[in-house]
Amino acid sequence: MTEPRLRHVSCLDTRGLHRMAYWEWGDPANPSVVVCVHGLTRQGRDFDALARDLCATRRVVCPDVVGRGRSDWLADPAGYAVPTYVADMVTLLARLDAEQVDWVGTSMGGLIGIGVAALQGSPVRRLVLNDVGPRIEPAAMLRIGSYVGQGGTWPTVEAAAEAMWALSTGFGSHTREEWLELTRPLLRPDGQGGWMLRYDPAIARPLQSITPQLAAAGEAVLWQLYDGLRCPTLLLRGAQSDLLSAQTAAQMSTRGPRARLVEFEGVGHAPTLVHEGQRAVVRDFLLAP
Fold it and tell me: What is the pTM for the complete model shown?
């Protein structure tokens, strides 16, 4: 089975430098690049199934956003915010030396994608937003905030997967092996024979400090950025999503880049892009002439 290469790039922050890990699939000299960016508590191996589909003809790069996976943790937790992540991705894009890239972003990764695509002179050619938009529903924020940063340890990978599934039913139906494959990269040994999550619990701090006023201001900025996009955009939505409402998705299909909207039944927040039907929609969009 095809496996990725693990690489790192140094990025600037308020305290110095931190290393961001990224997983690279396909020919490293291929100028046709797809960047896939994960959600809040996830990591780059979430995209293994999609990367295997694409890596014969594309160089697929899946970063671990700082504070997650194999990347460093920030000395200042206030840096766990979209502007930091956008700056890190600009550094990564410079490393990749590609004139154009396609972007696939799930949840937080989609918000980062909007930020990168909105930059003057951005290399983003096509944009896939997976179950996210400028407006994030407050109920979803409360749900996510109830478990992010709580940590925990488990005696086995299987026990960890079961516990995480209880918080992740919105991802839709998965086989036991599919869910274990999505779970294993999220874990690291706890030093006592068990397993713990491979992310910095402090990523929760900025989330906990969001007030309704800050949320409204952030939404206004994101709509402004989105309305300025001109790249072809595909918007995926879980039909039962509590984060991206049907109303927001409809707005996104008529504003800015007028995203093409595709909904997946039986899925909430967010489609994992593991199942063939979901991957096919993304493949067709990215590989179209």
Answer: 0.96
pLDDT at 152: 84
- Is the Cβ–Cβ distance between 123 and 192 less than 8 Å? no
Residue 95 is which amino acid?
Answer: R
What integer is the mean pLDDT of 167-195?
A: 94
Give the separation between CA 5 and CA 178, rounded to whole angstroms: 21
Please tell me the predicted confidence (pLDDT) of residue 194: 95
Cβ–Cβ < 8 Å for 134, 223? yes
| Beta strands 260-264; 153-154: pairing state | unpaired
For residue 156, is it left (φ>0), alpha (ψ between -120 and 50) or beta? beta
Q: What is the Cα–Cα distance from 228 to 238, expressed in whole angstroms?
A: 25
Contacts of 21 (CB under 8 A, 6+ apart): 6, 7, 8, 44, 63, 64, 69, 70, 71
Q: Residue 76 phi/psi, 5° resolution?
A: -115, 105
Q: Where are the domains of the chain?
A: 5-137+212-287
Topology classification of domain 5-137+212-287: Rossmann fold (3.40.50)
Q: How confident is the model at residue 62 (pLDDT cuts 50, 70, 90)?
A: very high
